[in-house]
Amino acid sequence: MSxxxxxxxxxxxxxxxxxxxxxxxVVILGLGLFMALPxxxxxxxxxFLPLVTAxxxxxxxxxxxxxxxxxxxxxxxxxxxxLMVFFAVLLAALALVLQPAIDLFDKVPQLIAQVGxxxxxxxxEFAWISQINEQLARLTGNTGGxxxxxxxxxxxxxxxxxxxxxxxxxxxxxxxxxFMIEARTRLRRHLLFERADFGSSIKAARVIREVQDxxxxxxxxxxxxxxxxxxxxxxxxxxxxxDAPIMWGGLAMLLNFLPYVGPLLMVGxxxxxxxxxxxxxxLGLVPAAAxxxxxxxxxxxxxxxxxxxxxxxxxxxxxxxxxxxxxxxxVAGALLxxxxxxxxxxxxxxTGRPNLIGFMFGEPLFPERLLDAxxxxxxxxxxxxxxxx
Length: 389
Prior knowledge:
Blueprint: H1 2-43, H2 45-70, H3 75-105, H4 108-125, H5 127-140, H6 155-182, H7 184-193, H8 198-239, H9 245-255, H10 261-277, H11 281-284, H12 286-307, H13 315-329, H14 331-351, H15 356-360, H16 367-388
Helix pairs in contact: 1-2, 1-13, 2-3, 2-6, 2-8, 2-14, 3-6, 3-9, 4-10, 7-8, 8-9, 8-12, 8-14, 9-10, 10-12, 13-14
């Protein structure tokens, strides 16, 4: 009896060492992939950006396509209609911003001159600081150097060069999105009925359904909240006398999809245009202060109460994902960062959350999986002696 117990202890110790070695290899490979992935994705952005965008759009639009198909519409037509609804909403949102922005573009030089005058007045009040800087520069012998201006392509030239690749990527994105949405029913059928292990099929289908429902519900709810923010911001811009209040409302709605960075950018734009169109700097900061108060209420009271704990994410992880994908794909990566983070989080919750900090101090990488395995092993050991008796 003691010999069998000793052999069982040795097997358990060997299995634990083997599991830790495999876990260490998984961590090393994961870190290597995390560090190498930005370079691969950025170099191959023409391929990977449309693919990732299509996957995210498929996750978001599949529930809408399912609902349309539930009305008796064929699957192919339901997929096209879901994509057309998204395209129409996107065009309407861009029209709210772009058309008034084009009309306001002619006033930009005047606004810049007005902002310069306001800060010139403010600089005159603190002229003594400039005199101290000049005296320090003379004492240290630091004189102004020669300014070198590099010739860069104009904005129109940059747009002309970028337009063909952007059009190709947009077409690829929508084509892949359509085919992925249209193939969703075949994928579910393949997962459920064309696999040997029915339990794993059910689990895979459940994971896909959970990811789809979670990301789609988040985007749908946040879209309604951001639409409300845009409506209030537009009414506030109209009440404060800003030009093109519809543009400010649409811009507030779109920028609110970017956590933390979008609202800060909106505050900066409102401060710039407010100072440029008001008589004093203090009055010019009123629109920015009003939007900041609106965003504070929305982000700390309204959105958490609507979304609840199910969609709560770590702000540090949001900022890491935002900076990570913005570095790789720019503005498109910033817009995709939160849906990608939601998708990865939903997958991790089903496959097991890794205990990276505990693993560094000797704990298992997936403690809940190890406990499940130990429970299964104990159950098997209890069944075998009973059967031998």
